[in-house]
Amino acid sequence: MTTMTPTPEQLSDHTGEPRPFLNMPLTYEQARLGMAFHEAGHAVLSMAYGMHIITSEVIAWEPEPGMFAVTGSTRHQTHDTPPWHYAAQCAAGEITHVLYLMAYGLWTPERAAACAAAHDRELAIDVLAQFGYRLGRCTVPEGGKSWGMVRGMARRKVGYLWREIRTVAHAMTENTVLTGDEIAALTGLVNPPFEGGAA
After folding, report:
1. Range list of β-strands (E), 78-122
2. Cβ contacts of residue 65 below 8 Å, gap of 6+?
3. Per-residue pLDDT tens digits for 130-160
4. pTM
5. Distance between CA atoms of 47 and 78, rounded to whole angstroms?
6. What's the rounded Cα separation, in Å, for the pair 68 and 87?
7. For residue 43, how far is the Cα from the chain centroid?
């Protein structure tokens, strides 16, 4: 853990606004591993859907003595990714975070609610809208899907790839940052080539 606060860019959503922080009463190690599961969910589903992963990391710092904060980041490149696959990988972080709590005996309704990642949902809505796809927050828009439907898609894929997600999460909590190629080596998945040169 570092005492240096991450940059505003690391703490912002895709619109540049600060991501909300929710209190989840866990030990530092539990919270760090939970965030590693969140990012591993994004990274593994992205890779399984044919996206190139640049890096995936858990970011932890000490905002003031005796306190800690954690967040994470997964950088990827998409190329001809089906829109609903893109949306499902956005939902995967929240899904894997909740499943982590359940698998490790930490689940409570309050902790599960704190896993909600509205910034991931809003990113999916905005990206899909650019391509003419309609993703509703609570309802099913005409010709589109609801966030609940996308979460269901993600949940099925996460269940199929749980071993790979767990492997990546534990490696990430030990190493802080994993490259896409390291994730591919850990999971046996293929990290597609990066389009257009260096990251």
Report:
1. none
2. none
3. 999 999 999 998 989 999 999 999 999 999 9
4. 0.91
5. 10
6. 30
7. 7
